[in-house]
Amino acid sequence: MTTFLTRRAALFAAATCAATLGLAAIAQAQTSIKIGYAISRTGPNTGGAAVTTIPNYELWVKEVNAAGGIKLGDKRVPIEVVQYDDRSNAEEAVRALERLINQDKVDFILPPWGTGLNLAVGPTLNREGYPHLAATAVTDRAPELAKRWPNSFWLLGTSADSAKTLVELLSKLRDEKKIGDTVAMVSIADGFGIDLSSAARPALTNAKFKLAYDKSYPIGTQDLAPIINEVKALNPDVFIAFSYPPDTLALTEQSRITGFNPKIFYTGVGTAFPLYRQKFGKNTEGVMGIGGWSGDSPAIKDYLARHKASAANGAEPDRWASAVTYASLQMLQQAIERVGKIDRAAVIKDLQTGSFDTVIGKVKLENNMPTRYWWVGQWQDGEFYGIAPAKNEGARTAIVPKPAWVAP
Amino acid sequence: MTNAILTGLMLGGMYALIAMGLTLQYGVARIMNLSYGEFLIAAAFASHWLFTGWAVSPFVGLVLIVPAAFLLNFAIYKLLLTPLVRRAPNRDALEVDSILATFGLTFVIQGSMVALFGGAYYSYSFLAFPVQFLGETVAANRLAALGITILLGLALYLALTRTRAGTAVRAVAVDPFAAQLVAINVSQASALTFALGGALVAAAGVLVSTFLTFSASSGVVFTMKALIVVVMGGVGNMLGCLVAGLALGLSEALVASYVDPGLTLAVNFALFLAVLLVKPAGLFGRATR
Asked: Cβ contacts (< 8 Å) between A41 and chain B: which residues?
């Protein structure tokens, strides 16, 4: 087939098209807010991201756009989303972020899921001056990082604080003569488990608890029966597992099957997942775990209902970082609206100093970190309530000892 | 002690079960199937879907999913892998090609599963009650899985050693060119063996899903484990697969109970290395072909 276009004409036409597209892009700049994120859609982080992060990003964007968008000055502009898969890989996450910044020219960036990836993208977001609302990272370096990267906000706190709160709760229960002082602790040999167990170990010994069992297991261990069998033989008052979701489920299952029922049964990430209640039903009663939320607060109940209505298959949020993630998005929106224009430095300033109305209550950050967290939660009547720190609003009293396992 | 051994046997049985299909696919059809674990997870999802959506017991699920997996794997071999088999000048070249092709397949299967089920963790309770066995308390679902593994292993062993088709398959495993000389349809035997391996991994997926938590991205763990068991037992050898699986499971359980749970992986790999140092072709492998 022949064509009437010469090569030069074709080039000219292409250039004209490109120029028109460019003009269109400029003309559109103020009609939407471009928000980008790279999230783990594949790889080992997918399980966490799919429960805690992705549904909240989608819910928030849907709700904001349904309300007309984010208010900039006196008009509302809708959110436009650009997203990539970071494949649970730090280099890929950083690459995706650089693409979002340089090529897609997004106005704001939402963080990835998990401590590791949030630490990985920190320097890039800092260098480029984007606010970094890390809602799913637990790290002891949070206060130091908040100083080094003033644009970063560490909303889930430090593992030392988490371990300390748990040990305080145990000490209080021992003073009330509800438990004795033998503790068995297992932890996963990965970031989370190592951090938490090395913070809990000195805290427990300082509080004069007897650590009858203290061992770690490698990530991907497919049978935790030997651990539970050995722990059961030691008959401790308190069982603590700093575990990841698959192990959290396996340890609970094995304990139920062997009839290991200590006065305190505490498991790690995954205890607050809806999957946990779905799998164990009545047997969740009295199980403690990391995290928690104010299950009775109207804001949380409303959030739960909206989340269920929006997510695929009516999935529920987890009872810890999900609400914090959603709250971080509300904070971002309120900060942008108060600033009234796309001015990232001003938004960061507002996040540092402003106070925010969110689903987890009023939030005001100090040194880029919240002042209160839920560290220990407990399943009571089918809801995972925060029980410690006890001074938090909405804290429930712990059910101790844990009721016996029942046949499912 | 009984408890640790029993736990070890159940875990080892699971490893053997997971690896049986791969030893057929790799040992006979000479396809190094890197998407093996994904097939396992796909079967686990199918079982989960049948159980939670339609209240179909995983045992009934086996009857539905295993034949379906057989047909699917047969089709995959015919459509996707036969061109590679035709093109490959020798078996080593086929191995490399199949690694690349099945690596690509990994993403296709994983992507479809993420699209269908999302990335979240899945788990359901089936036969999750304690039973007394040899004076110890064990989970019924793990015991059932061990029982079915033994039955499957035995059936397969008999089929391979006592039937005409089984003899043909073993002949192909040893020397496909010589097998042709005695009128064995090598390509047909390979296709059937690959499909049989696919059916076995589906059975493993269904059984594993009754007691392990899984997600769309957890397939690679199973591929790795299966690969270790297959290589350790001697490629293509059923008995070797069983022995290697049990050895790994037992060592893991004994180390976790009597030494330290943190050392299970290290002991696994030490055992693997030790076997390969003494017998480079695996426990039951032939040193030369």
From this structure: 114, 119
Q: Supply φ then ψ for residue A402, to 5 degrees.
A: -60, 135
Chain A residue closest in CA terms to B116: A312
**Residue-wise pLDDT tens digits, B29-46:** 888 899 999 999 999 999
Q: Is the ipTM of this complex over 0.90?
A: no
Place of tokens 């140092």: B277
What SS3 state is found at A373?
A: coil
Q: Where are the alpha helices (DSSP H) in chain B?
A: 2-27, 36-54, 58-76, 82-87, 91-117, 140-162, 164-174, 176-181, 186-209, 219-233, 238-258, 264-278
Strand pairing partners for B122? B214
How many whole angstroms separate alpha carbon A297 and alpha carbon A305? Answer: 13
Nearest residue in chain B measured CA to CA from A311: B118
Distance CA(B242)–CA(B237), nearest Å, equals 9
Examine the pLDDT at A25 and tell me if it is beyond 70: no
Contacts of A12 (CB under 8 A, 6+ apart): none
Q: What pLDDT digit, counting tens, does each position of A74-114 carry?
A: 899 999 999 999 988 999 999 999 999 999 999 999 999 98
Residue A149 falls in which region: left (phi positive, over 0), alpha (psi -120 to 50) or beta? beta
Question: How many Cβ atoms sit within 10 Å of the Cβ of residue A46?
Answer: 27
| Cis geometry, peptide bond prior to residue B130 (ω within 30 degrees of 0) | no
Mean of all residue pLDDT scores within chain A:
90
Contact present, A185 and A213 (Cβ < 8 Å): yes
**In contact, A376 and A154? CB cutoff 8 Å:** no
Phi, psi torsion values for A20, nearest 5 degrees: -60, -45
Interface with chain B: mutation pick from A58, A222, A275, highest number of B CBs within 10 Å = A222
Looking at the DSSP bridge assignments, the partners of residue A38 are A84
Cα separation of A299 and B7, whole Å? 47
**Helix crossing, B186-209 with B164-174: angle to 10°?**
100
